[in-house]
Design brief:
233 residues
Length: 233
């Protein structure tokens, strides 16, 4: 028997008290509703927790992928570093070999330098002798140049004297030529005037002859006079 039934009061006419039953029903409904709400809340919380767990799982998977890529990149970088290290070691060995060769070459150069030093001393002595010879040659050249300048000075003086003489003769010749040209010009002027006079006279004679011929043409039956005979010379 339900324990709640013990709290029901007995009605006057058989059965339970109606109000007690209603109170029980309302109480049961309220409790059921509260339990349903609690269960729904728990279900919602469980759903949210599941969503959060799923998102966390997705994020974890994403982080895992990132970590995998980082690991692959690190492994690749490590491999490249290993290759670079091997290459660097090979280069180091090459540098060591080249350094040994350079040391040998340096020793040979030191030997050559020692030989060149003795040669340099001989060259310095030769240079001193050459400088002395050049100085003597320069002094002789200066002496020859001075002599040449003196001779050139004498030649210039003689040439200037000859030039003065030629210039004086040219002046006299030019004066004579100018006088001759002036005289000839005067004579030519007189000849030009005489020629002009002769031309004027010929022009007058031509006009007179033209008038005479015109008169003869106008005269009917007149015969033109015979031209005057020219004197034979």
């Amino acid at each position: 028997m339900n324990p709640a039934e013990n709290s029901f009061r007995t009605a006057v006419v058989g059965g339970f008290n109606r109000q007690d039953v209603l109170n029980y029903i309302e109480s049961s409904a309220r409790e059921s509703k509260e339990r349903v709400a609690a269960l729904q809340k728990e279900a919602e919380e469980a759903k949210q927790a599941g969503e959060a767990a799923r998102r966390e799982a997705d994020a974890a998977k994403g982080r895992e992928d990132v970590l995998k890529r980082d690991l692959e990149r690190l492994q690749k970088a490590e491999a490249e570093k290993s290759a670079s290290l091997e290459s660097a070691q090979s280069d180091l060995e090459q540098v060591r070999r080249e350094l040994a060769e350079l040391r040998e070459a340096l020793g040979a150069l030191k030997d050559k330098a020692a030989r060149w030093e003795s040669g340099a001393k001989a060259y310095a002595e030769l240079k001193d002798r050459t400088a002395t010879i050049e100085l003597e040659a320069h002094q002789r050249a200066r002496a020859i140049e001075s002599q040449a300048e003196e001779k050139a000075k004498k030649v210039r003086t003689a040439a200037e004297q000859i030039l003065y003489k030629v210039q004086a003769g040219y002046g006299r010749l030019r004066g004579d030529v100018d006088a001759t040209i002036t005289h000839a010009s005067g004579e030519m002027d007189r000849v030009d005037r005489a020629l002009e006079q002769v031309r004027a006279e010929f022009a007058e004679h031509d006009a007179a002859l033209e008038r005479l011929l015109q008169s003869c043409r106008e005269c009917t039956g007149c015969k033109a006079p015979e031209p005057l005979p020219l004197d034979d010379k």
